[in-house]
Amino acid sequence: MTKAVVLLSGGLDSATTLAIAQNNRYDCYALSVDYGQRHGSELAAADKLARCLGAREHKTIKVDLTVFGGSALTNKSIAVPTQGTKGGIPVTYVPARNTIMLSLALAWAEVLKSYHIFIGVNVMDYSGYPDCRLEYIAAFEKMANLATKAAIEGAKLSIHTPLINLSKADIIRQGISLGVDYSLTVSCYQADQGGRACGVCDSCRLRRAGFELANVPDATRYKPYI
Amino acid sequence: MTKAVVLLSGGLDSATTLAIAQNNRYDCYALSVDYGQRHGSELAAADKLARCLGAREHKTIKVDLTVFGGSALTNKSIAVPTQGTKGGIPVTYVPARNTIMLSLALAWAEVLKSYHIFIGVNVMDYSGYPDCRLEYIAAFEKMANLATKAAIEGAKLSIHTPLINLSKADIIRQGISLGVDYSLTVSCYQADQGGRACGVCDSCRLRRAGFELANVPDATRYKPYI
């Protein structure tokens, strides 16, 4: 089997990405990044998902992006918006997050002698997100193929983005067909310790709309006051 | 003044790079990465250098690359070579290290609204190092200019590599002309707590030869048994 490093946040998209990679018969090494996000329940979810979906191994690496701040997710004094998206890039955007995560995945891939990285980016969610676009991913892949000892020795690394052009509803339909238990996933920006969602942040709204459009019961566990 | 993020390891090259950036009238934000290297004296050196060379601010961010290992610098069971370089990429190569460091610098740059990153890479040291080559740096810069909100808004980020084609002797001459106190820098892969160098690892050998070729007294503080 071919080894792949799969970035796994614990949310709906990355869980589906892992299920797709497993279904494509990759030997999956799931990587989560503890970057100082507002809550740890996403990372606990990643751990469960890696096991349930059959990843070979799961590692969580810590890189404290609260040192830089600049986002509602890495600076607790910036509130998470709960009134719906307004267009443009929201304050939950974390500067260079995908670049940092892909760089860490690249490091592990090189150590594992793996030439495949999966990331669940998606252009549809927030059309303004710079590091979710195909041209960005292509540029990262090109850079990665100059960056490592493996690349110099002739290996060709591929970045796989199986969700990039799917709607949230399509992602959910595909995940369900692959047996993903979405009640285990945590997408909410401000989930509680137990992983229960607020229902009103942008991430919750997108996810909830996805279940509706997919005509599938919403598996999300919400906080009791919703 | 124009803001710049300067990667500062605490070694000779990055100290010189910071001195060059300061001399070019950038307002310098020095960034060190605690990636689990074998000793902390390099980071202590970075802190002193940032102050002595007049950086506006200095941050150290922790990202524990020992989680992946794969290098003599991140896995203590792999010995640091002390018999001189043998050609090829040595075991002290850390997978994707410069990509990870540049990604972190990119994150801070975006938060600071800075469009300049300095890194002291140098092709001459180990000709085999993939992530010290100009074509790699150019590819990173291209990717970075697709990665961020700042880039989408039209800002153009530049990665500056003032040492890329210099010999170690040239770097030392330039640093001395700019007043760098090299006794504060730590290049050794296995320095002691006080920052004293072993004298025999590849990094020590290259540095020592640099001082000799530059015809400058070697400012390095060596361990007493050398």
Q: Which class do the helix and strand fractions of chain A yield?
A: alpha/beta
Radius of gyration of chain A (Å): 17 Å
Under CATH, the topology of chain A can be stated as Rossmann fold
CATH homologous superfamily designation of chain A: HUPs
Helix content of chain A: 25-40%
Largest sheet of chain A: 5 strands, parallel
State mean pLDDT of chain A (0 to 100 scale). 93
The number of distinct β-strands of chain A equals: 5
List the strand order in the largest sheet of chain A: 3-2-1-4-5
Overview of this protein structure:
- By secondary structure, the first copy, chain A, is α/β, with parallel strands linked by helices.
- The first copy, chain A, has a single domain, classed as Rossmann fold (3-Layer(aba) Sandwich).
- Helix content of chain A is 36%, strand content 12%.
- Chain A is built from seven helices and five strands, in the order βαβαβαβααβαα.
- Chain A has helices at residues 12-23, 41-52, 97-112, 134-147, 149-152, 168-177, 202-214, and strands at 2-7, 26-34, 57-62, 116-118, 158-160.
- The first copy, chain A, has a five-stranded parallel beta sheet with strand order 3-2-1-4-5, with helices on both faces.
- In chain A, strand 1 (2-7), helix 1 and strand 2 (26-34) form a beta-alpha-beta unit.
- In chain A, helix 1 crosses helix 6 (168-177) and helix 6 crosses helix 7.
- The longest helix of chain A has 16 residues, at 97-112.
- Chain A is globular, with a radius of gyration of 17 Å.
- The mean pLDDT of chain A is 93.
- The interface between A and B is large, with 43 and 44 residues.
